[in-house]
């Protein structure tokens, strides 16, 4: 079976399209990545997405139209990745699309009930490509009382799960999050939570003190020394050692937080501040492992993915803090870190077509397992 | 096969739920209406729908939450109609839902592209009932270049089409619209268009001059006399004799139009004004038949449905204008006028499950026939 997975994240860096071959099915599912592209989002559409996400600036006419525009953009991403691979659209079995999240209400808030909204009309994608589309994965988990996220633990279990060793998948995006896959072979034993900041603080500090959008390879931090007083202070943030399940975001480790620490430690050298927040990020991860993972699971390996996997200083710090565990990056294992989420949705879409459950209630909080997603048939009957 | 069809119109009178049995399939599809209810829309939800439809007052958080709230409301409508029929949800094969239209852009307008948006999350309906849901019928027709409306001609062809006689289905809702089904047995020969005002002007005049929300049985109009000068003036409206395909709405025959005619003819008696706008509505229908239907099709019968079918004065006028054609109401034929649209979506949903085309390009303007709708599997695998 051949499929294209589509992912367009909230960072708006582009539309990820992964063309994959699905080999076997079930616990033995193997995925072969054939081609991967990230399609730029045109500036005017990016602007419309930002407006559509905004409580005050959004409006129904804009959202109605943007849903269709994104359908066309996602169709182009499918066409482009197939063209690059010289793979005919006619040989695609299905497309799995996450859509663009424009709003997410994990918990009741005033008159707003728990709900989530991803747009990028699947009918447009199906019509433009002639291929069946699986979409809207998050809503059914929320119908079952879950938060609709994270959905990746299922694909991580399928791709990385092993009966030989227990492993953890540590993603370092803006936020750090971990999925723990014990070697029981039972998806019910999988658990996941946010460890704390990922690149969010490092990037922001880097931008303000070094004028660079991120610390490439961790080179700025490598020149600094960790300041222990500041580190202890940062580590006292209540999120770090609060018990899972837990999730965090820009509300806790965003600009406001960075404003405060930069003001408080302005007497330190820039390199030292960056080294310290990099160590803070490393230790927020390692301390969560020590407290909440190693006590439960005999962990042998950590696989690091996301942009943070490229920060060598951060990786070095994490290895120092967890000396007895093998730490590798996703790319070292031969898995594309960039294509990870687009591939995850192919795996979820395949489960939908097989009428199989694919949420992980221990990760999302759902009361039961459900079949995720809906199916838009190819409009031209192939 | 058993199914519930759900319809919630823009008038917000309630959620229509029709429990039906589908007998046979294809050109011989027969539908037996087992039970029908209209569930009230709670006042707060009605308010949220109105806000969500409004360009200035709508916002993404409201729409995100309302999509789920309507999912729960629609689920309740399914449960209620099954309960009233003492029919177990477990025996339902599928649910077909139109959703609540919150926006529709039939043609490009500035930066807004042709698109349409119906909400009422199918995942919620599928989870709450345990039944497979077919939804979002209009989007695929728009993907194929159509206006996404009208979709009823397909079900009208299935239900009323006959090789013996050519018939017309005249719906009189706010707007009047006709579907013509020639006796060729070929759906490609079906055509449809808006004839002009339906109850829109009558209701508005009735409200302002008689303080009643509509002219029950046409009793107020029956006491008046048609004023010929006024009638000729009204009939000069350019829409009436403009060539199909054509569609109209509140922009042309809404409050502003009524303001103008009431001002211009304020010297007339209220009964006479109402009789005249009732005759105008009748003649806008009959003149369209004479000019655009009878010249093409040897029409034997007109079936009248929608709220206007209850207005006896209006019906009498139409009969006078078209003396050689048999005119009956849907209810006289044994078809529920109220349940018509909810049943239409069961028929469309059934086509989706059979991977069969169900738009009528000659009615919507689509460039080709397509399979409409998407399928949300029952989340609990039945």
Give the number of helices of chain A.
14
Terminal CA distance of chain A? 15 Å
What's the order of the H and E elements of chain A?
EEEHHEEHEHHEEEHHHHHHEHEHHE
Helix content of chain A: 25-40%
Largest interface comes to: A-B, 59 and 60 residues
What is the CA-atom radius of gyration of chain A, in angstroms? 21 Å
By oligomeric state, this entry counts as homodimer
Give the uncertain stretches of chain A in residue-range form. Answer: none
The largest β sheet of chain A comes out as:
7 strands, mixed
Structural class of chain A: alpha/beta
Highlighted features:
homodimer; 382 residues; alpha/beta; seven-stranded mixed β-sheet; five-stranded mixed β-sheet; 12 strands; 38% helix
Give a description of the structure.
Two copies of one chain form a homodimer. In chain A, β2 and β3 form a beta hairpin. The mean pLDDT of chain A is 94. The longest helix of chain A has 25 residues. In chain A, the strands form two sheets. In chain A, strands 1, 2, 3, 4, 5, 6 and 12 form a seven-stranded mixed sheet that branches. In chain A, strands 9-8-7-10-11 form a five-stranded mixed sheet. In chain A, α8 packs across α11 and α11 packs across α12. With 382 residues, chain A is α/β, with parallel strands linked by helices. At the A-B interface, α2, β4, β5, α3 and α4 of A face α1, α2, β4, β5 and α3 of B. Chains A, B: Its EC number is 2.7.1.170.
